Amino acid sequence: MLILNLLILLFVPFLMAGVIKKTKAFWGGRQGASVLQPFYDFKKLLKKDFVISETTSQVFKIAPVISIVTVLFASLFIPLATGSALINITGGLIIFAYTLSLGKFFSLISAMDTGSSFEGMGASREACFTSIVEPAFFITIASIMALSGNYTFESLQNVLSNAGSYGILITIFAVVVLFLMILIEGSRVPVDDPATHLELTMIHEVMILDNSGSDLAFFTWANSIKMFLISSLIAYMIIPQSIAEWAYVLCYLAVMFVISVLIGTIESGMARIRMSHVFEFIFIMSSLALVVLALVTAKMFGG
Fold first, then answer.
1. What pLDDT does residue 62 have?
2. What local confidence, expressed as pLDDT, does residue 281 receive?
3. Which of 44, 136, 186, 284 lies at a 20 to 30 A Cα distance from 292?
4. What pLDDT, on a 0 to 100 scale, did the predictor assign at position 303?
């Protein structure tokens, strides 16, 4: 099953990106490209040459590799298609979060290394959003871990059984928090639009404008894997662990598909919100994380 997890980790992120684009094409009345098109684009970028500015340093050259290595390493701590993580240790949440943060840090300084005020603007926005998202993620997952007393990601599957009537509410709010995290960290609408190239509204895309060839391929792939990993946490929370292993894999892939369709539908049904209101949207995630904390506190201390 290790091979199955590896294959799903490497290829499902491409399929999720393809399903999102296919869903947007459907709602736009178009046929759209194949769901495999992101994978074809990735292979095409790997064959292209680099175009690197003379103003950049070694930071710019190593950032794409660090970005993809960090998300692949972080995936070792997340339960994937088989319902178990390869590395399941106490404190895995901290290693997971800060491994992703390391990749984010290098992508930020890589953008600033170009000497472009335009890319610096995108890096500043990305860093600001992350500083709000990270505490909300910790509050949500750590609260659930404290509820079960198991400080590994395995605690996410025990919410319904350990929390009784509170478990349903905790699960619902936690899933919404993680889904909002996908939209924010994945640079999706309504926070960002991966298809836009408007100067004053770009965030993630502007950070990788100077990247080309395999560097651009690695950044794009890393972003898709990050979205996939957060989606895996949602799947782990809502799929019963008592079902057969093959059924779990099918349910897991179905959750990935549903999340992709939801993202594509949201991007088709609403526009980006104004930059001045993005923070209000992100604070929704923080507010819901505090609701999860309140529910866990009420359950633990008899509220």
1. 96
2. 94
3. 186
4. 58
Radius of gyration of the chain (CA): 19
Candidates 82, 102, 99, 100; CA nearest to 154 is: 82
Contacting residues for 44 by C-beta, under 8 A, at least 6 apart: none
Name, in order, each residue with C-beta under 8 angstroms of 85's C-beta and a sequence gap of 6 or more. 76, 77, 78, 79, 92, 152, 153, 154
**Which residue is listed with tokens 């993680």?**
178
For 28-116, where are the alpha helices, taking DSSP H only? 37-46, 58-74, 92-113
Report how far residue 207's alpha carbon sits from residue 120's, in angstroms, rounded to the nearest whole number.
8
Assess contact for 113 and 60: CB atoms under 8 A: yes
Q: Give the dihedral of Cα atoms 78, 76, 248, 15; nearest 10 deg.
A: 90
Q: Under a CB-based contact definition with an 8 Å cutoff, are residues 256 and 14 in contact?
A: no
Q: What are phi and psi of 120, to 5 degrees?
A: -65, -35
Q: At which residue do the structure tokens 């594509």 appear?
A: 264
In whole angstroms, give the CA distance from residue 140 to residue 123: 26
Q: What is the DSSP string of 273-295?
A: PPHHHHHHHHHHHHHHHHHHHHH
Report the predicted TM-score, pTM, of the whole model to 2 decimal places.
0.95
Q: Which residues contact 216 (CB under 8 A, 6 or more apart)?
A: 45, 64, 208
pLDDT given for residue 241 in this prediction: 81
Mean pLDDT rounded to a whole number for the chain: 92
Q: For the chain, which residues score pLDDT lower than 70?
A: 197-200, 303
CB-CB neighbours of 21 under 10 Å? 21
Q: Locate tokens 């319904």: which residue?
A: 160
Q: What is residue 155's DSSP assignment?
A: G
Cβ contacts of 291 within 8 Å, gap of 6 or more: 173
- 186 close to 227: Cβ distance less than 8 angstroms: yes
